[in-house]
């Protein structure tokens, strides 16, 4: 098994297409296929904020559900869109409003298809993926070592939102513990969720959310090669969106 784990896309479809080209995928019938059968793994937050969330949903659905050529774990934005599509009263903010605006421009038939496909994609997904052949675990916001193997409510909160304390920064962002400092496992933990200027490696964890939607880059982590591949973002750069850990 060889995998290309892809960071938070957030509707940046053009950059995703460029990344697949850079990873040597070839486009056949509108989907990227690798000549050596490498497997794309999407680590969540496919939508919101960027310009092309609907195209991104369509492509990931085809790859994961129809062609069985890729894998996917959900992120917190995926969870919010899923709840919106179920008809729940979800606040349209923090990016969801951009996906909803795109969705509402579609005709009734396309809306029904998009809603149905995303619900199926989300409900089919594991909270996190264990990939023993490449000695890796993929979780949107990471996973603490003692939670690996569990699938309860605490695990769901962690993999979607990170190691949150329940407190907030003055700007409203949740305060998170730096769980990666305490990880001492043998497998890679590959995650995103928190935008960083460069992929952040701590122990055997790597954050590959390089903030494409905030103007930096879209990044993939290749295993077993342990190689980082990025393409530059086409979006405006928003410096304050990038976190650094002291």
UniProtKB/TrEMBL annotation:
SUPFAM superfamilies: Metallo-dependent phosphatases. It comes from the Bacteria. CDD domains: MPP_Prp_like. Residues 1-196 form the Calcineurin-like phosphoesterase domain. Pfam families: Metallophos. This is Diadenosine tetraphosphatase ApaH/serine/threonine PP2A family protein phosphatase. It comes from Aquibacillus albus. The lineage of its organism: Bacteria, Bacillati, Bacillota, Bacilli, Bacillales.
